[in-house]
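[Q] Does anyone have a clean structure-token version of this?
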Amino acid sequence: MPTSETKEAEIAYKALMGVVDEYMAGCYKNWVGSMGALDSSTLQAKLDKPLMKRTNHTDTTEREFLAVSTFNVKGVFLQCNFDQDLLALFTEVQYWEKFHGEFSIPYHAHDLYNQKAKFNAMREHVMRIVDAYNKILCDLSAVERRLFSDHIRKLDKRINQGLQKLTWVSKGIIEHYVNDCCAHCAEIYAIVRRFKEGKQRISHQCRLASSMLLLQIDKNVTYAHDIFEATQAARRTEMKRRLQQSHEITQLELRAIFTNFCDGTSEVLREWREFVKEIDSQVEAALRQAVKRSLQALSRAINGDAMSEPQTLFCLKLVLENGRIDYKPTMISLTHLVNIVAKELISTIAVVPRLCDILSPETVKQSSVANDRSDCSALTKRHRSFYSTISNDEDMLKIVVQIMNGMSLAATELQRHLGYWERYKTLWEMDKEAYIRRYAKANRSLKHYDDDVTKYRNQQTKIEHEDISHVVNFVQLDCALLKEQLISHCQQWRRNLLGLLNKNASQGLEYLHNLFADNTRTLCATPSDLNELSDKLRILLDFRSNSQVIETKILPIEEMYATLTKFDVQVASNEIVKLQELRPAWKEFLSMLDKAQHALDKAKVNMRRDLESNLEAYCQQVLQLREQVLIEIPTSQELTPDEAFAVIHDFRHRVEAVYLRKHDLQAGLDIFNMESPEHRELKDTERDLELANQIWILVRDWTRAFDNWKTGRFDELDISEMETVAGQFNKKVGKLGRDVKRWGIWEAMRTKLTEFLQTMPLIQDLRNPAMRSRHWDALKRDLILSPSLARTQIKSLQSKRLSKRLKHGGGRLT
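[A] Here you go.
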């Protein structure tokens, strides 16, 4: 029972078939419509065309089409000229017949379709000519076609019937025409193939020449100077022979090719000359490549490249002479050798002559007649030789320069390689004796000695492990002799440092033994006074407090001798004995200190009484000084500042004498652990002297300032500055008043400053622009002042107490 999906599929199928039928009917209608314009006469005209035509491309093969497109030549190739509309008609009729009469085919179309087999056979015959002809042209380049122009022209004469006369309706002669054309095409194609093969053999010789290396550098071989030169000379001789042989083969091939063009027109002979020039250029390029590759090989051996390092060619020795490292032999001779090899390498190609001079058409004909090679070589040359051209080529010169730069770089690198040995430079450059003297003065620790000796021992080991040879670019360096010299320097440094260490150990050992002996004699002697007693107690105390420090000096000396033993130094026998006796001597010295302590304690009892008497005299001196200061300290205003400063200075000297006596007593006080006396009277004396010094400094400074102002005129005074300075003095005097208010000099100074500050407002009023001459005249009459206000001085106002009198007058002027 049909399902819903079956019905839907049936409906879709009927719709699709309707669309297909409609599309087929439309296509048939369009085709019949296009056939309406074709009748039997029109179809006959389409057959009345030449068999072939010229075109700028060929539809035979893709390779031939690409060749034609490359040369961009129009109308060169042949193409079958059968009408494309007829081919389309054959195809349309073939497919419409497949509907088995559903679509009727026009009569004239069906009649023409019945001749399809005949026309296809004719097309195949014509395509034989087209393929053979186009194959010749495709094998030849545009330049080569000009050289084969005579052969192609002869072939075109035979083919022209198919281009002009013979049509698709011609009868009987087409098969004969096709066979004749194909035979001539095969003949020309054979000449083309021989030409191509000859060119290939010439190209092979060029490739052989370009692949030749004109020098010989064997891998893993280090050449001596003369061996390298002889090897390259033998290589150049062999390469000259091979180049001559290859050039003879090339000449023979060109002469064989020329037999096909020797009878050609002037145009063909001109193209032959161009062809020979092209071959000559190929030979030149091959020789240039050979020279370039050879120079590059030499450059690569010297400079290396991205894929390989420079090859080792020569060997140099490193030596240390006259305080510097140098190479033997020098780089100058190596550079000269490489330069000669590079130049001679290029001259190898001079044995190859120019082809365009010996293989021109005229030269070939003469040589073929005479058959004499010597005559050929004697012909006049019109071109520069290969050697002259290539030797001056910019690329070759660049490579030669690169080679020379490599030599220069190698010399620079060799010089720079000396920097590798600069790490050992101090071994031979530094003055060993001067360095050891500085080392001794620096008093280096034992660790420094151990580190430095170990450093030189390690340097010696490092030098011993250095490679005997190094390779720098193309040079192998022999370092054996240099290593021996550096090792000798390391050994000398070690001997010097260990000798200094032995000397220091010996001196330290001797110092401790002398220290014990000398101080034993000093401490065992009886002291004669307090100072000597103090010195001995101080020495004894120092040894008591520093006993651990002294004991720590023993261990470093023992370690020094242990270090000397570590580095296999032979120590003197007397030093070994003293070293063994050092610690017993130290224990004996400590026992002596205990005995000296007991003896000095007895001496202290006898000297205490003398100290107490001197201390009482010191206290009496302090009290007497205080009493004199209270009486004689300069507090009166009747004294001048200089006189006051002289008194103060004298008392300060006496205070210093008291302190000096106290300092002398301090040693005895320390011995008996007595407190140093502190006198308040001495402190008060110092304080009073300082206050007196301050007040008299203010008196002196104020007197100098006032002396500068008192003779000044009103119109020149800076009242603001005067008030500021006077205020500062008044402030300082006020501060001192807390301690010296009872002194007469302080009262006088205070009064002077007060009067001066009271005068300032009056002076300011007198300088007022509102002051009139009648006001001044009234003051002159009352106070007998200067006739002019501008010329009035401040001392006149100060002397007449003008501020007080004006104050009592109640301001009569205003």
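[Q] Thanks! Anything notable?
[A] Confidence is low (pLDDT under 50) at residues 60-74, 368-381, 806-814.
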